[in-house]
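Researcher: I'd like a candidate sequence for this fold, 664 residues long. If you have to choose between options at a position, lean toward the conservative one.
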């Protein structure tokens, strides 16, 4: 289910559904209450503990945990206050990060960017900081593209003071939705939220009083919700989160309607212990079930999986294509025609869960997800979009539908009706710029890549004759943008192909055994802006062979006479080395410095060691872990050209004054 509680375990927290009185007497502190998922109780205990705190460190932790608890129950403002207090008490980068997420959820993107950057300065992983900053900058652009004038979005009358969410259509005229509203004062309470256990409700689309959907499907001490129906409404699939043994998980149940009554619900398929299955949706004439789960085999967090209906029953779950799933959480899939709608908290969005769409092609492939943007999405959680299949009676209506959002001030989930109107613009009204922009958007860009490497006369000697280039077959190619991921493999001629649909920057990481990983950046915006028609980009990606234990000379590393200081003209070569180490995090190197033969042996040895140390310090300052680096000065003991010192040319001396590295 997706109430305050249900949303929280979408962020990777296993749901422990405990009855109203279970464990309460055993909980003596706030952190135990958090472990038991009893966040309202945890807030009460933590506030008391904070008032008695005797150290700054303890106060900072209690403040952070209070912010976390309020986040888990969707109280954004109180969460912000406590995260801010944790920052003030120097709790560290995690507090900056949590406060940044909070500001993003409130659509304060500029403030969020600053806080993410502060988290980075405090030690939060740079790659995650960079990604979130990019996402916020994209959100600022989308924020300026607000299309509110073409939409009417209003909460439905069936909403309550509690969480109401995940509507689905039933028999044409009704909505079936989930709510954790308390039926009466004697009803059991769910300790996560302090509200009731969630149940399925039914209400007419055009208004009326919501009623419990079915007393046989709903239970007093379990959470039910997120229902979907077969095309003829004779079958229901829904989530049930039960706790028969004190600590259980969500499963997908189904029931058949016979003679006007729903039969005893059964599990759709056998579930793996310790995992959640939820948010079912049916496609392909009710023969494919799509749902959200944290089973292994996805990309991380909660992912979209599917199961096929066969004669013997539903098949074991398999993950949906990788382009739909992310390291974050994907949930609440719904279907309209050939379009899949779902929500993600990791794909670039406006904050929280955002609604995305993907279209299936004739060959069964799903397109990369597209953000629905404002006003359907907001900084709050937005999910569960359903499109009304009933014909629109008004000629200027594009579509009507319903979705759930926490965008209004009470921080609970509410169901909204959305109507999108067709903009009143004729072809004659379009400017030349409009037509040019439409043409630009219609242009297709394709990538034709080839992975190559040097073909050495002696494959074990980096100094041997290079005969030319050869194709690297079977290379792993990972292509990533803010909205599109792809995993490819080079063919028997080193080639790979991709249809580029995203207008942003493509990061192309190529790896193959025996070669250094190579990251190439492709900026598509500039290319698409100059293209007059469909365009193919031909790209050759060169991989460097790894020669373990063999010295590789770093070209253009120069030092002033008798100096060990890194010169400015050496920076480009060192930055290439930093990039190589970043792209190959499992490799360690020995960095070696050599002098020419002039000067005493002792002086040259000392000078070369200082020069090697200077390069190591540069690499460490650039973020390379010291444990991956060894500095070794050889002085004049290992000359590249062993000429008589007085007879060596200046060019030979320069060749001997070299900086090298080797893989160790």
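Model: Candidate sequence:
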């Amino acid at each position: 289910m997706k109430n305050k509680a249900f949303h929280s375990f979408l962020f990777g927290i296993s749901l422990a559904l405990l009855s109203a009185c279970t464990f309460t007497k055993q909980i003596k502190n706030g952190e135990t209450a958090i472990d038991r998922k009893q966040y309202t109780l945890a807030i009460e205990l933590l506030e008391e503990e904070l008032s008695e705190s005797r150290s700054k460190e303890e106060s900072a932790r209690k403040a952070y945990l209070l912010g976390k608890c309020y986040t888990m129950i969707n109280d954004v403002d109180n969460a912000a206050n406590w995260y801010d207090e944790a920052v003030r008490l120097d709790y560290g980068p995690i507090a900056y990060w949590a406060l940044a997420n909070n500001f993003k959820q409130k659509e304060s993107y500029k403030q969020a960017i600053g806080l993410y950057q502060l988290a980075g300065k405090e030690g939060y992983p740079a790659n995650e900081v960079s990604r979130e900053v990019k996402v916020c900058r994209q959100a600022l652009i989308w924020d300026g593209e607000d299309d509110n004038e073409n939409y009417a979005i209003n909460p439905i009358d069936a909403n309550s003071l509690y969480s109401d969410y995940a509507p689905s259509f039933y028999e044409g005229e009704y909505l079936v939705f989930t709510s954790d509203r308390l039926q009466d004062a004697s009803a059991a309470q769910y300790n996560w939220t302090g509200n009731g256990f969630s149940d399925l409700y039914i209400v007419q689309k055009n208004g009326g009083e919501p009623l419990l959907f079915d007393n046989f499907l709903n239970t007093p001490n379990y959470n039910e919700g997120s229902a979907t129906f077969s095309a003829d409404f004779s079958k229901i699939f829904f989530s049930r989160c039960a706790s028969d043994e004190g600590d259980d998980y969500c499963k997908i149940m189904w029931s058949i309607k016979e003679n006007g009554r729903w039969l005893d619900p059964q599990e759709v398929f056998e579930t793996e212990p310790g995992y959640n299955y939820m948010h079912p949706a049916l496609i392909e004439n009710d023969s494919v079930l799509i749902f959200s789960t944290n089973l292994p085999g996805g990309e991380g967090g909660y992912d979209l999986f599917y199961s096929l209906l066969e004669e013997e029953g539903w098949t074991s779950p398999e993950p949906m294509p990788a382009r739909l799933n992310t390291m974050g959480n994907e949930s609440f899939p719904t279907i309209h025609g050939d379009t899949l709608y779902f929500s993600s908290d990791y794909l670039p969005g406006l904050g929280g869960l955002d609604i995305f769409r993907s279209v299936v092609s004739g060959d069964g492939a799903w397109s990369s997800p597209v953000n629905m943007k404002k006003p359907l999405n907001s900084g709050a959680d937005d999910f569960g979009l359903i499109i009304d299949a009933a014909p629109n009676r008004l000629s200027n209506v594009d579509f009507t539908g319903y979705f759930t959002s926490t965008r209004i001030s009470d921080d609970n989930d509410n169901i909204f009706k959305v109507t999108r109107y067709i903009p009143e613009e004729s072809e004659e009204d379009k400017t030349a710029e409009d037509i040019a922009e439409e043409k630009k958007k219609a242009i297709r860009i394709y990538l034709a890549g080839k992975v190559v490497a040097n073909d050495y006369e002696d494959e074990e000697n980096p100094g041997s004759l290079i005969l030319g280039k050869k194709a690297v077959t079977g290379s792993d190619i990972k292509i990533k943008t803010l909205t599109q991921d792809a995993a490819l493999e080079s063919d028997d001629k080193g080639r790979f192909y991709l249809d580029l649909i995203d207008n942003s920057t493509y990061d192309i990481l190529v790896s193959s055994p025996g070669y250094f990983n190579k990251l190439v950046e492709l900026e598509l915006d500039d290319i698409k802006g100059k293209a007059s028609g469909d365009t193919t980009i031909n790209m050759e990606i060169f991989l460097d062979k790894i020669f373990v234990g063999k010295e590789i000379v770093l070209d253009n590393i120069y030092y002033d006479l008798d100096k060990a200081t890194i010169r400015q003209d050496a920076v480009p070569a060192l930055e290439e080395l930093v990039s190589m180490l970043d792209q190959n995090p499992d490799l360690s190197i020995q960095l070696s410095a050599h002098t020419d033969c002039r000067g005493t042996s002792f002086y040259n040895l000392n000078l070369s060691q200082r020069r090697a140390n200077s390069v190591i310090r540069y690499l460490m300052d650039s973020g390379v872990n010291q444990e991956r680096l060894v500095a070794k000065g050889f002085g004049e003991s290992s000359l590249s050209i062993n000429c008589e010192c007085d007879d060596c040319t200046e060019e030979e001396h320069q060749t001997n004054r070299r900086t090298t590295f080797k893989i160790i």
